[in-house]
Amino acid sequence: MSLDRRSKRTDDPPGRSPTRLSPEQGVSGSVAEPPEPGEKTWVGCYNRDPGVSLLVGGGGHSPQGHLPPEDPGAPGRSVPRVCRAGTPQSFYQSCGAIDGCHIRIKPPSGPDCQCYRNRKLFPSIILQAVCDHQGRFIDTYVGWPGSVHDSRVLRHSPLYAQSSYPPPGHFILADGGYPCLQRPLPLITPYKRQVQGVGAQRFNSHHSRARSIIEGGFGMMKTRFRSIFLQALEVHYTFVPHVVTACTILHNICLSAGDVLAPEDEPEDDVEEDEGEADMEAVSGAQWRDQLCAEVSALEVVPPGHNYL
Hints:
Keywords: Hydrolase, Metal-binding, Nuclease, Nucleus
Number of strands: 10
Radius of gyration: 20 Å
GO molecular function: hydrolase activity; metal ion binding; nuclease activity
Distance between the termini: 56 Å
Subcellular location: Nucleus
InterPro entries: HARBI1-like, HARBI1_dom
Strand order of the largest sheet: 3-6-5-4-7-9
Family: Belongs to the HARBI1 family.
């Protein structure tokens, strides 16, 4: 596991990357460079498979500042899945569901406060996470202010930039706030509302059920750490990403020990978001989605000799 600390101007062009600390600094005791006058800062953490280790900082960092993902196709490694009983076979290619979660914080004073107010008007920091069918977090990226669109957080995340997960032929399920992509990161989103045809409606229904595991993962973690997530975190906002990342690690450890909780139901806004800013180098996944939709609608093979009477 590794974390990295970053500083970024909120008015930077989309292509500019946040400032990164050197690998030697690690996280423990490291301090981000002081901002220039008028510069707005944020601190973020990235973690691939938070359950693999509790070690932070030190000499174990890669030159990129975070642990490279393990190859899911390597011997002894299995591809995480999101399929449940009754899921169409075409969704067996999905190996995770992604979404963003707003973590309540006590915002900084001054003009920077408005950068952290989300569309629900409370200050927050965004946790982007991918999880499997058990609600175990596979990939986490936390630290962007709550006013930032989910698609922008995605495009600046190592998950998107490195394109090392999921393995070829697989995809991640996402909601309508993300773009439907084939490259660099395979994301399959539902058809937009007012879809025409029974096939698209059936696809959206199966997609929604399969993707709901990420909401269940967030819900379990919030239930497990109520004192942290059901109110604004009583820590400095620059330390919030470290607290949240630690919670994702402990959540995975609890699941590995068989400590599974029923998530508390939270009212969710059923508001459809646009896909945010477009990446000119990205390849649309609309054709792949149409193929999956056709497979969902296709008649299943009937076992020979089966009698429906």
